[in-house]
Amino acid sequence: MDACTLGDLLDVVGGPALRLHTAPAGQAVPVTEAVLHDGRTPLPRQPGALLLAVGVPAAESGPLLRAAAEAGLTGVVVRGADGPVAAAEEHGVALLSVAEDAAWHHVHLLLASAIAARPAAASDSGLGDLFALADAIATATGGATAVEDPRQRILAYSTVPGQPVDEDRRQGILGRQVPASAENTEQYRRLFAADRPLRLPPLSDGDLPRLAMPVRAGGETLGSVWVIDGGSLAPDAEDTLAQGASTAALLLLRSRAARELARHRGSELLRRLLDGTAADAATAAGRLGLAGPARVAAFVLDSAAGVPDTERTALRLLDVVRLQCEARYGRHAGVLVDGVVYAVLPGSGERHRKLAEDIVARAGLALRVPVRAALGEVVPDGAGLADSRADADLVLRVLDAELPVACVDEVRARVTLLRLAEVMGERRELSAGAWRRVLAYDAAHGTEYARTLVCWFDAGCDMAGAAKLLAVHPNTCRYRLRQLQQHAGVDLDQPDERLVLWLQLRALAGLRPATP
Questions:
Q1: In this structure, what are the phi and psi dihedrals at residue 447, rounded to the nearest 5 degrees?
Q2: Greater model confidence, 97 or 182
Q3: Mean per-residue pLDDT for 121-139?
Q4: Burial class of residue 219 in the structure, from the number of CB atoms within 10 Å of its CB (0-12 exposed, 13-18 middle, 19+ buried)
Q5: Which of 249, 236, 247, 370 shows the shortest CA–CA distance to 303?
Q6: 422: Cβ–Cβ under 8 A, 6 or more apart, which residues?
Q7: With 90 as the cut, is the pLDDT of residue 238 above it?
Q8: 11: Cβ–Cβ under 8 A, 6 or more apart, which residues?
């Protein structure tokens, strides 16, 4: 009754995760399962299956498309975007693709989960009650009934025997989508502007008129209910339909609440795992489906871009991150905390940076706002995710337009100095010393002794190297250092004092060597 179609599958996992190149038989064709197939073995007959072309380059999948058609398969999924579209159209099978670096077992898990969840969604999320409601309305009004969402997708339909139906009804149920037409668009415009049941004429010869009612809750349109008028509707059909639409609103809101509750629970669990407050990190990670090594990636909107609605845009960024992570790993673990989107990336980290770069590029295009991404240390299990999140937070603070994506190891020196500056700034004994006298002398006399010191330190205490960084003569450097020791009381002959002075000037004063 509720088989998954190609269109249903694309609604759930389409877009960047799964691209449709051609569907010669349309999107209403059923998809019964996702099959991993090694091209070196014969293809079994599995009508309606979606074949994952493991080990077959996209450009060389023509023979597999022909074999898939002979086996009654719905379509073939290749890796990469250069599959033979013409061959797919010739053989009448759908051709889809996933990203070049997508792992086949993750793709299989994603598609299999979506296909399996499609029929189950009706009963598990409250939509199953809509079928019972559709039957009740059909029995009371005397006309076949369908419940739709605002995008004209059929969520439920009646199965009362003996009631007249037309071709539009049959096609809509088959594809779970109302056939599109200009006339249909106009009828929906009128319907969604109405506040009572509306009688609508047939759109073409052979069709039957409809009695329809929008489904609303708190001013929000949740969908619509349609009853076919075969000429024998009950006298109180309009009142019955109005009551049925009210009940449909409650069921749709309950379904939405169930989905939101499940997402909220997962988000809260991940939030506790990332901030280190989970009572049992291993159990929490297990409930989120996280096992083995992983790292935390943090994504944030570029604050300098001047986003007008930051909160809404951040939520859209969360959706992009979740979608991309689910496409790669079969499920997502992401949460939005204080404007930062955190995602847990499983594995040893070999492809994590590439994924972060892809997300930054895709999100930047979709949101039209620059996005930055920071990756923490790879940790052995869920218990270390709080530490990886702390790493990612530090990396975010050193990113800029020239470095929008970085792993913690790539900027280890910068984040170390950043943390040293915070620790030293909080402790009087660590922030006191000769560096303050050097800066004070420069401020009072217009000298550049502090910068000269930093360049000399960074040049390994080599006078020629420091002079090159400062673009002055070595004798000028020597003179400045002598004057510095005399006026600021700095002892440059002591290695420990040189080290502390360098750390304080770099970390606390924020001085950097000049570029030659």
A1: -90, 175
A2: 97
A3: 72
A4: exposed
A5: 370
A6: none
A7: yes
A8: 153
The dihedral through the CA atoms of 97, 99, 103, 107 has a sign that is: negative
- pLDDT tens for 436-487 read 888 888 899 999 888 888 888 888 888 998 888 888 999 998 999 888 888 8
Q: Are 31 and 12 in contact (CB under 8 A)?
A: no
Which of 71, 75, 25 is closest to 53 using CA atoms? 75
**Both tokens assigned to 181:** 């037409």
Q: Which residue has the tokens 């989107």?
A: 341
**What pLDDT does residue 121 have?**
40
First to last CA, the chain: 74
Q: Taking 70 as the threshold, does the pLDDT of residue 499 lie above it?
A: yes
Q: Which residue has the tokens 């049959």?
A: 170
Residues 79 and 130: their CA atoms lie apart, in Å, by 38
Label residue 34 by pLDDT band (50, 70, 90).
confident
* DSSP summary character for residue 505: I
* pLDDT band per the 50, 70, 90 thresholds, residue 167: confident
Average pLDDT over residues 193-218: 91
State the DSSP code for 217: E
Q: Which tokens hold the place of 1?
A: 């009754």
> How far is the C-alpha of 262 from the C-alpha of 269, rounded, in Å?
11
Residue 350 CA to residue 157 CA, distance in Å, equals 48
Residue 288 phi/psi, 5-degree rounding, is: -90, 0
Residues in contact with 430: Cβ distance below 8 Å, sequence separation at least 6, in sequence order: 423, 424
Tokens of 208: 């039957």
CB 314 within 8 A of CB 336: yes
For strand 154-157 and strand 145-148, is the pairing parallel, antiparallel, or unpaired? antiparallel
